[in-house]
Specification:
This protein is of the alpha/beta class. The protein is built from seven helices and 14 strands. The protein is rod-shaped, with a radius of gyration of 30 Å.
Length: 299
């Protein structure tokens, strides 16, 4: 769970005044600016929604927008709500060039990109909402990511790398908040514990055995599997002391099955000294399976 951090702009004064009026989280810091005037940089959905949240506390929130008047990157519904908010103000065709202040934010320098005119706007705070950057550089080449660097993980927080889980803001997801990160972490913890248990069990019962092992991948939803299991058990019983039998529900242990290319049940996989040496897929019969078992035992 490496997390993500707000994207910064590298403006003069931004780093120096971070935490002293420069903020990247409205829900975290809005109440510090009660009845004050703030500037909001950004014009996407997140930026506009955060600005509207700020208006519950501040005297005014001025959005600095690079586009022509009336144009935002936010969706129409959010845009229309913002335009109706009496505490929202707008600086169109503009960018922030500098954040000024002696120990705390006092003003920003705004440049009109069409006229090149620069003006200084008094402000008590600057909120920057121009996206986040996942801290995943150390994972490049090890797990699949999207083009922005967010880790691709499924609903169990499993990544493309076996045994590697990703939770929280660093993964591809719809909503990045503390509560969703905590939920991700809980899921990842349970899934990882199950993974460790399955791996240890498979190693102990199959890979570390001295005798050959016949692993029966079966499914309780497959009548063929249920009908064929007695034959599998007979073959193992007749070769007791020479061949061990392990039964694995293919749907409960899809990861282990997938690792060995097993996609259907029933399938019998034979292991010797930790290596897969034979695989018998359905359709087959008891005699054919017994011959393969004897071949594996004979080495």
């Amino acid at each position: 769970a490496p997390g993500a951090e707000p994207r910064t702009l590298g403006l003069p004064g931004e780093r120096e005044l971070r935490g002293k009026g420069v903020s990247y989280c409205a829900t975290c810091d809005a109440d510090f600016f009660e009845e004050l005037d703030v500037v909001v940089i950004g014009n996407g959905d997140a930026a506009v929604e955060e600005a509207m949240y700020l208006t519950k506390f501040v005297n005014s929130a001025t959005m600095i927008v690079v586009h022509d008047e009336g144009i935002l990157d936010a969706t129409a519904i959010i845009r229309d709500r913002a335009f109706k908010n009496p505490k929202m103000k707008w600086a169109w065709n503009s960018v922030v060039e500098e954040i000024r202040g002696d120990g705390i934010v006092e003003s920003v320098v705004i440049k009109n990109i069409k006229t090149n005119e620069r003006t200084e706007l008094e402000a008590n705070g600057v909120f920057v909402f121009v996206g986040t950057v996942p801290k995943t550089d150390f994972l490049k080449g090890h797990v699949d990511m999207d083009k922005r660097g967010y880790v691709i993980a499924n609903e169990l927080m499993e990544t493309s790398a076996d045994g590697v889980y990703c939770a929280g803001d660093a993964r591809v997801k719809y909503l990045r908040q503390v509560i969703t990160a905590a939920a991700d972490g809980a899921i990842a913890a349970v899934a990882a514990e199950k993974y460790i248990h399955e791996e240890e069990g498979f190693r102990e019962m199959v890979l570390d055995r001295e005798n050959p092992v016949m692993v029966a991948f079966w499914s309780p939803t497959s009548q063929v599997s249920l009908d064929f299991l007695p034959a599998v058990e007979r073959i193992a019983e007749q070769r007791a002391g020479k061949l061990n039998l392990v039964k694995i529900d293919i749907y409960k242990n899809q990861r282990v099955a997938g690792r060995y290319g097993i996609t259907e049940a029933p399938t019998m996989a034979f292991f010797r000294k930790g290596q897969l040496v034979e695989k018998v897929c359905w359709p087959t019969n008891e005699s054919e399976l017994a011959s393969v078992a004897d071949k594996v035992i004979g080495g």
